[in-house]
Design brief:
The structure holds two protein chains of two kinds. By secondary structure, chain A is mainly α. Chain A is about 60% helix and about 0% strand. Chain A is elongated. By secondary structure, chain B is α+β, with helices and mostly antiparallel strands. Classes of the chains: A mainly alpha, B alpha+beta. The interface between A and B is large, with 78 and 84 residues.
Chain lengths: ~180, ~675
């Protein structure tokens, strides 16, 4: 019995821990998907890939839900050129993003910065899920205790349809 | 003429609806069968009436009656007839009518079933269906009327109104603006109807659930009655989601199929509540547990369905302030709040009669694993819901807009999806009632060992991405477990009945279609999971500007830019089409023709990728820009999307499995359940 409970608990807790881990970890950039060609070519021209790499995590305030790197509008084209310009001035990704945030607000970032009020967005889901997991676990334990106290047999044979029973009997005989 | 006619029929439909609601309430109050029968006939009438309304809109669309604002906004002379017809759901007003039409179709279908044994549920089912329908009809008539005409005021302004305002003149544009080019794709023609079908067909199980609560017949009768409805609803919803992904992949030109856009999430959320519902009703059927919980799940599914329609139809996503200005938003909000609270109230009222008949005895039993499944699905739902509404909350409280984009959802739901996948491998092998680690281990060790072999092979081949290793390992485990289940069953039949293995497999699945259909669905999910891991983790891309004759490389692939042609088509498009040669490891493997269509009427461009598709990967090329005269160069964006076709393949298997599970059984099943007890207290209103 004990290993049974432990296993389920650790299964649930493991899944949740993984979820929480992802949240509490510092903003992890997605795995860079960039060609092998390098970022800046020899003649000092900033490549499209370098621009897109930064634009991927940004949104312009007008084209809702279209990432900047793939947005076909003229305005977004201008933004990408601005990124190229800033890159050629030697600015880092963080500095470039800060440049846009300063002018247009947090809305340009693919996810809210992890500070102040915005923590709500990161904290609420894990708390709710954790609360759900705890409630579920306690309920299951209560059920089990009730079963033990009322002296019901530990094994309640589940009703099976005839065919499955026969099938399983057959399997049992064979092994 | 057709305008006033259609509008008139629409008004009559609403009146019929309201009559049906009143008649069923009165019939319940008086316990008078005649009034309830009258309400039933009223509900039956809504579908023909809405068919007439829809046909008059389609008539206006086909004949190009551009004085009607809706017609002018979604059609134009150059569009082919089939697109003019499907333009019915290409705009807000028409799609609400279409939604109502489908709702009425389902409501009418449900009235035609045999009600002899469940007569007491009927008035409540009618009430729920008709109230939902009346709500959507009110939205159509009072806020998004597809029959409104265009008028020119004496001051030269342009307004839309149903009837001629004082001093205004009819305005008839020479041509319409045409359907948004992004919507002129077969995927977009079929995707909304499927999604709507999924949405409206979930109303039926909800209606029966409410009827069960209202009448006090809280046994599992309502679940047995609506099991197939729920499965079909789920099939349509899933198919709608998958086709939507395919459409995005083919048309939106960003190399992916799912962007965690709030509109996509709005459609995913009812699915995230409906899927655990489909699983946990099995616990109630087999073990008599979780009766209240199943009610909560179906209420959630219903309200998330309305909420999803609200998100996409009220304009609340672009700005909360826009939401407050139009009446449609608050109305939706009120409806959701009212149905949710009333449903929960009913549930509380009947809570005592929803006690479990048996108790959970083991934490490894099938029912506890199903509960874990519910927890994970709802966890994903919480992430999605919160991610969608957080920008609204932020705008409301801090007056600053925020974006909650893909990185948030991917990080938050990734582990939950993985845990769900793992559960999908374990749960089918655990037994109802009681399972110990030992019995579970005995059935699991073979597939688990086989999956470890897969993991070892991947490691030997040099794969080091932890996410991919974990994901593929779990996928392999689930795949093997499921196949093992099939094999075990077929082998037993083969031994028992002396059938050949294929025959045994066929009969096995035929005898317990719900179970084996479910397994086929699981196999589909495994294939999709492998595809998703492939594209999410191993996608590579590059972008570059190359002259004619130049080439651009990505991994082992390269393209050579041969030529570009620009021409006008007779359906009012300007097409720029590039011709490329594709090489893999230096060997010519084919030509691709990525293009950019520009639609003159709407002034919108559309980027159509050139795709070389194999089971191993998709090589996906976009034409972004070109300078025909100055440099003869063009800018291309190329993606290599490994295994993405497994997503579509998995989708097909998934559909097949759902069909196996949902296809109507022969009559035998109906006789298996005895007539419902008649002592259910008829509730008073």
């Amino acid at each position: 019995m004990i290993p049974t409970r432990k296993t389920v608990l650790s299964l649930g807790a493991g899944a949740l821990a993984a979820g929480l881990l992802f949240f509490s970890a510092q903003a992890q950039e997605p795995t860079p998907v960039i060609s092998d060609d390098g970022v800046i070519s020899d003649d000092g021209v900033i490549s499209d890939d370098a621009v897109n790499e930064i634009a991927r995590g940004m949104y312009c305030p007008v084209c809702e839900n279209v990432p900047l790197d793939v947005c076909p509008t003229q305005a977004c084209h201008q933004w990408r050129e601005t990124i190229r310009q800033l890159l050629s001035e030697g600015k880092t990704e963080a500095e470039i993003k800060a440049y846009f945030v300063e002018r247009y607000g947090d809305v340009v970032l693919a996810e809210p910065p992890r500070q102040g009020f915005n923590w709500l967005v990161y904290v609420v889901p894990p708390v709710v899920i954790l609360a759900g997991a705890i409630a579920l676990f306690r309920m299951m334990r209560k059920w089990r205790v009730e079963v033990e106290q009322t002296g019901e047999p530990g094994v309640v044979p589940a009703p099976k349809d005839d065919y499955v029973r026969r099938l399983e009997e057959e399997l049992e005989r064979r092994s | 003429m057709a305008v006033n006619f259609g509008y008139g029929v629409l008004l009559i439909t609403l009146l019929v609806c309201l009559y049906g609601i009143a008649a069923s309430i009165y019939g319940l109050y008086r316990r008078n069968e005649n009034w309830i029968e009258s309400a039933r006939l009223a509900m039956l009438l809504t579908w023909p009436l809405l068919t007439v309304t829809s046909l008059s809109i389609i008539y206006l669309l086909i004949t190009g009656r551009y004085e009607v604002a809706f017609v002018a906004s979604v059609t134009s002379d150059s569009m082919p007839t089939y697109l003019k017809i499907t333009a019915l759901w290409g705009g807000q007003a028409g799609s609400l009518v279409f939604w109502s039409w489908l709702m009425a179709a389902f409501a009418s279908a449900v009235t035609l079933r045999k009600w002899d044994r469940d007569r007491d549920l009927l008035p409540w089912v009618i009430l729920v269906c008709l109230i939902t329908l009346a709500f959507f009809l009110c939205l159509t008539i009072f806020f998004e009327n597809p029959f409104q005409r265009l008028w020119q005021t004496s001051t030269g302004g342009e307004i839309t109104a149903m009837f001629r305002p004082d001093g205004a003149f009819p305005l008839v544009p020479a041509d319409g603006r045409g359907l948004n080019p992004l919507l002129r794709h077969p995927g977009m023609v079929i995707h909304p109807p499927l999604l709507y079908l999924g949405f409206v067909s979930f109303v039926i199980p909800y209606a029966f659930a409410m009827a069960a609560l209202a009448t006090g017949r809280t046994d599992d009768r309502w679940i047995r009655l609506t099991r197939r409805w729920a499965l079909w609803a789920w099939l349509f919803l899933s198919l709608g989601l998958i086709l939507g992904g395919r459409w995005a992949y083919d048309v939106l030109g960003w190399g992916g199929y799912w962007g965690w856009d709030p509109v996509e999430i709005a459609a995913l959320m009812p699915w995230l509540a409906g899927t655990p519902f489909l699983h946990s009703v099995m616990i109630q059927e087999k073990r008599g547990m979780l009766k209240g919980w199943n009610m909560i799940l179906i209420i959630l599914t219903y309200d998330l369905m309305i909420f999803g329609t609200f998100l996409t139809r009220s304009g609340v996503l672009s700005s909360v302030h826009a939401f407050a200005q139009s009446a449609i938003g608050p109305l939706f909000f009120g409806f959701i709040a009212a149905t949710f609270l009333i449903s929960l109230g009913l549930l509380m009222y009947r809570w005592d009669s929803l006690k479990s008949e048996t108790r959970m005895t083991s934490m490894l039993s099938r029912e506890s694993l199903f509960l874990l499944n519910n927890l994970l699905f709802l966890g994903i739902l919480v992430v999605c819901f919160w991610g969608v509404i957080y920008p609204l909350i932020s705008e409301l409280l801090t007056n600053e807009k925020k974006t909650v984009g893909p990185p948030f959802y991917e990080q938050a739901t990734g582990p939950l999806w993985l845990a769900l996948l793992l559960l999908m491998g374990i749960a089918p092998l655990s037994a109802w009632g009681h399972t110990t680690l030992k019995t579970l281990g005995r059935s699991l060790w073979k597939p688990a060992a086989a999956s470890v072999v897969v993991l070892a092979v991947l490691l030997a081949l040099g794969m080091r991405q932890i996410g991919a290793l974990l994901g593929i390992w779990v996928s392999a485990f689930v795949g093997f477990t499921t196949l093992y289940e099939f094999g075990r069953g077929a082998w037993a039949r083969h031994r028992m009945h002396d059938e050949s293995l294929p025959v045994a497999l066929w009969r096995l699945a035929g005898r317990n279609r719900r179970r084996y259909g479910g397994y086929v669905i699981h196999l589909g999910v495994v294939l999709m999971a492998i595809g998703i891991i492939g594209i999410e983790i191993f996608q590579t891309q590059t972008q570059g500007t190359i002259p004619v004759g130049g080439s651009l490389a990505l991994g082992e692939y390269s393209i050579t830019y041969n030529a570009l042609a620009e021409f006008d088509t007779n359906d009012n498009r300007n097409v720029a089409r590039a011709e490329l040669s594709v090489f893999k490891d230096g060997v010519f493997v084919g030509s691709l023709y990525p293009r950019r269509d520009f639609f003159y009427e709407s002034g919108q461009p559309m980027t159509i990728p050139g795709v070389r598709s194999t089971l191993e990967d998709d090589f996906y090329v976009l034409l972004l820009d070109w300078q025909p005269i100055s440099t003869q160069a063009a800018t291309f964006r190329i993606y290599r999307n490994p295994l993405v076709n497994w997503v579509w393949l998995g989708g097909a298997v998934f559909m097949l499995g759902t069909l196996v599970a949902a296809w109507p059984e022969r009559v035998v099943e109906r006789r298996r359940y005895p007539a419902a007890p008649t002592q259910g207290t008829p509730a008073r209103v």
